[in-house]
Amino acid sequence: MKILLFYLLTMNFTLSQSLPYEQFLDFMNHSNGRVLGIDFYQGQYGERFESTGTFYYLGKSYYIFDAIDQRISFKNGNITTINKIEKQVIYDKTIPGEVTIFDILTGTNESLLIGESLFEKNGYKIQFTLKEWDMSGTIRTRSSTGKPVSIILNTGEGSEIRVNIISIESGLKPLEIDLNAFEKIDLRE
Questions:
Q1: Is the dihedral of CA 8, 14, 18, 19 positive or negative?
Q2: Cα 85–chain centre separation
């Protein structure tokens, strides 16, 4: 009986170590989508870029980052960048193999290799690497739900992208922006 109990506990622990990323993806893939309030930080070559905005996850191939000054949409390989200040819209396509921080949130990039999941005081720390790039990082989630807390991507020496999730909702869609008065630039080929 003790051996069976030990076996069950060991199996439960082993399985739980492989499930945090899947639990995270299940949380993100809510049928009504997810809306995340985020703080975005990028540091590179001594320069810093910070932004606060809303990330709309509307499906594996459709997501939007909306901030006060810009909106960036990814839909089925097409990128639309709206500069709200300059009243300009740029249409572009993703480059095959290109990775964005949002691919990590959605699990849509095949070069993403999930590593060890560590159980910590406030949840899981899920380590990952990007196979074709010299990048690694961590996703922090709540242990009971898979709800994301933060993502850190180390993109090279002295370079880092950090996303802190400050709120999460379901079922909301972004307001439409009237683009009639905007300059339009199409970079798609």
A1: positive
A2: 25
Neighbouring residues of 31: CB distance < 8 A, sequence distance ≥ 6:
none
Beta bridge partners of 135: 130
* Sign of the CA dihedral with 21 first, then 22, 27, and 32 last: positive
pLDDT tens-digit series, residues 109-159:
667 788 999 999 889 999 998 877 778 899 999 988 999 999 998 887 778
Name the pairing type of β-strands 78-83 and 88-93.
antiparallel
Domains and CATH numbers, the chain: 2-57+100-178 (2.50.20.10)
Residue 112 has what pLDDT? 79
CA separation for the pair 182, 180 (Å, rounded)? 6
Task: Tokens 């720390």: give the residue.
Answer: 125
Q: What is the pLDDT of residues 5-43, one digit of tens each?
A: 444 444 444 444 458 999 998 898 888 889 999 999 998
